[in-house]
Amino acid sequence: MIKRTYIVSSSIAMSKRYCRENKNIGFIPTTLNHLVTELYNHPVFFMENEKTAVLNQHQQDLNLCKIHQSLNTDNYFYEAMKIRGNRGLVLKALLELKLSLNGADLSGLKLTDKRKTSSLIELYQAYEKEGAFDYSKMLFSVIERVKTSKYDTILQDTEFLFISDVEMIGFEKSLIELLRDKTSVTAFEVTKSELKFDALTCSSAITKANSLISSLKWMKDHGLDSSNTKLVALSYDDYAPELYKLREKLPVYLEHGIKCSSFSFFESFMTFLSSRSQTYREHDLFLQKLESTVRMRTEDTSYTELERKFYQMTLLHIRDLKGANSEYEDMGIAIDPYELLVMELEGLRFSASDLDLEESGLTLSRIEDAYALNSLNVVILGASHANYPKKLKIDPILKEDERESINKSIDAKLSVKPFYIEDMLDKLISNSSGKSFLIYEGHSTETGKLTVPSSFYNKVLKAKGEEITIENIYNLCGVKERYVDDLSSQGEFLNVFSNEGLKKNINIQNEKLYSKEIEDIDYAINDKFRTRLSASSLESFYKCPYMFNLKSNLGVYAADLGPDDRSSWLSATERGSFLHAAYEFALMPFIKSKKVYKSYLKGLKEKDLEEFMEQTMNSKVQETDELLFKDISPEIAEHIKKSELLEMRENLESFIEKELENLSEFYPIELEYKFAYTWKVDGTELSFAGSIDRVDTDGKGNFKVVDYKTGKNYFKTTKEYLFDVYDKKYKTHKVYFQHALYTKAMLESEYKSDIKSISAGYYFSSERGEWATVFHEGDTPEKKLEGILKTYVKEASEGKYFKNATQCTFCEYKQLCAGKQLKRKHIAFPQLVNLQKAVGENDA
């Protein structure tokens, strides 16, 4: 009897291709999730299986809405779950918890944040009470059946071959161990790749189309064709449309299909959709009219077969949304059917069969669908840093330290680190027994600037014994030569390309202007009054009270909704923290010594600066002993990290030079000076805590309080009003309170009896900030701050927190802010006017 062999991988497309290429009778392609589902639904268990209906995304969301409405309003997740996208994240976290608990009691849960602990227990219990049938029930049913030998007869003629590393959540790993005891389970072996760099060609192009043309030319020059060469894209959806255009010239196959948005009729329909949403404002009527129109288009033979297929898929989404819309209304939940449809339709894609593409010819695959497969030769498209390597983040609902706490406190099996298949590109190339071609777009056609290549090229340079520098990577890929060649071959095409790249915004329509009446979307209500403040929290209140309420009152996180792919090692904030730490290490030896400041600075050598940089790199968080900077983004290209460290090393050197250049009778006596004090304002006691970057004195009772800024200096002179500055570029006000809070802190400190005068301000320690020091005009900023605090007490105690639309551009809480707030900039809400007046210079 022929045994059935399930070919399991992280991608169903990879499993199918393995079966297709090996042509072995009895091979069944699957993923772990599909395998569990198939085992659960085996005909033998038809009578005992729970009868269920598959829920569409709206039905799942409605279940979450019911759970949300059952929560106490002070639940940690309550505010976040008002947003549909966040509900999806919550569902993912709840399912992962369920897969990791197997019915275990959550009552013993212990997290650092007690509020989040009780909130998570309440949320999970509500989810369990809802009792929706999900994947976890199938998994635990299958596990129990395997344990009790109910699958023994089935498994005796079955074996499992894992051809790639597979993410296993919770008890999925236990299932595999149980199956291993019953039958043959061959696991994917993670081995170090042995790359054949002598058979690897690196190149570049200036467009996606040119990348394909160069790849085909390379294949032709080496006598290769589609029968012996794999074509793999690191950004599949960027290359699929380009390859599809070549289908008349050569047979092509798109393994993952192509997005519907790649076709001109998609944009036309989206424009139509937008106009209908403006014509029919009532949701039911909008969906009813839309359903009628789309249904007719599915049957209209004047449209191509592909267009009718698109309308058939669209019709299903409209009907699902139409069915859910009334339930949303009954629950009092506001949704925008137009926006939901736009998001859903933008994700639609045609399969290869929809496109009438046969499984032959030049096949384009995603790297995650091909990396574990053997091949003779391989072409890899788009090896730029923007798409490889990818930095994956763990689900923001359950952070890494919280997952560890959950596992310890209730014996769960949550994954602590995000699942990531390391070195997919390495494995893909090492699985090729012949030649490999690696190409990326070396220039941005929009800006004309050079783009950052993938860190994979570092390995190529290392293998060649060359220094890892960006210049050597550009030489390796022939960036300059390819740019000239591609440019000369483009001709008029470049002009057309630049125009085609400017897509019109199909959503811009004439809309009715918002009224000036205050609506409930303009503010939040919260009777909680916060008395514990910091400079940043108080500044956030004056920038946008609504954001302050979310962040400081409710403790709502700004959801991280995706991977963070970036072409730099440190973010702007992390870079600022690094430099602050470097300055501290540089000046701390002076404070501990009895030297004259000038002598100390002049005595610093190159090796001292290197030591300060090394100390900064190895500095740790005191509470957790974790490395502050060294472990940030380990996958970042080494030449990028080296370049940034060199730049910050130069900044530190400039910092020392500027200290010498601007020597006066003042010298530092405190660095990262911690403080805590209370301040009674209009009968309300407010408390403040924080740390001051630097305190200087002349030893005669005169003090300077300094806060480092590594960004741009928005002030015009060295002495001016610091509380409020207008940013002309973004038409927004920036508020600064540190100088005043720190002045008050010094007046409450152990130095208070020595103080005759205090100057407070900012030191913009960078070329961008022109190494400027800006101090407050006048030596009593704390008096102005007292007036600001009185306004805070009055406005915050009323319990309404208004949205300030002038702050939306860079706000990390955009997705938690209902309504199109930017369109309400013209409304002068009294609270926002009062706050602006309070920080204004005329009121000083």
From TrEMBL:
Q: By what name is this protein known? A: PD-(D/E)XK endonuclease-like domain-containing protein
User: Which InterPro entries did the record assign?
Assistant: PDDEXK-like_dom_sf, PDDEXK_AddAB-type, Restrct_endonuc-II-like
What residues does the PD-(D/E)XK endonuclease-like domain cover?
532-817
Gene3D superfamilies, alphabetically? 3.90.320.10
